Amino acid sequence: xxxxxxxxxxxxxxxxxxIDPICQRKICSFDCIYCQLGKTxxxxxKRREFVTVDTVLTDxxxxxxxxxxxxxxxxxxxxxxxxxxxxxxxxxEVRKVAPKDVPVVVLTNSSLMNQKQVRKDLSHAxxxxxxxxxxxxxxxxQISQPHPSIDYHExxxxxxxxxxxxxxxxxxxxMFTQENKNFAxxxxxxxxxxxxxxxxxxxxIRPSKTLPLTPQEMMEVKKHFNEFNTISVYEAQKVKAKPxxxxxxxxxxxLK
Length: 256
Ligand code: SF4
What we know:
Distance between the termini: 22 Å
Number of domains: 1
Radius of gyration: 17 Å
Helix content: 25-40%
Strand order of the largest sheet: 1-2-5-6-7-8-9-10
CATH class: Alpha Beta
Bound molecules: iron/sulfur cluster
């Protein structure tokens, strides 16, 4: 399995070359009800090395020779990037190889951000997109289905701390589903506590077990976020990107 895939068309980042620091069956600290990768096969919070830095750099150099233009290099893939114990080193080394004008981004579910070492690892990125899908513990359990050791309020605390420490761009990503669509005001209050640079308002339009909200419903959600710089999935420009390896890409980004 290659550690580099895409580029994929990301409504948030443009043509994004993906780096998968997990690179196995889906291993995550959550089992989100809308996950496009299906059921979590290993629900864990234990950090470990899944792929070596050398493997990623070899795959990345090969991919960069084959792509014409990209807008971002993004850590994401078959599970939660924070679980990779070598994430910090991976970001540092990828930053040296990636084109200078292209941001190195990490997409994370924020679950381990309350750990100092995880925040230190993430701090090497140019941009971190941190997920928060629930305004309270009960909805967190229902939507994110986290590992039993993850405490909602400790996670929030980690998200706030990381905002204070991080000098790069901090984007909050909120996924709206039938379960939390009536809690947009409470979600906006949580966002106020975290103070992100901007917010991506999302709904699962990719294949998943959960039905997305309609554009009308997302407009209603957005009304609660007036004081933030927001982008909503239905308002984003369409992006085109041709993956260099469709089979590898489809493992992380299943087609409709
Ligand atoms: S955090 Fe991401 S990879 Fe993990 S279950 Fe949720 S959507 Fe899937």
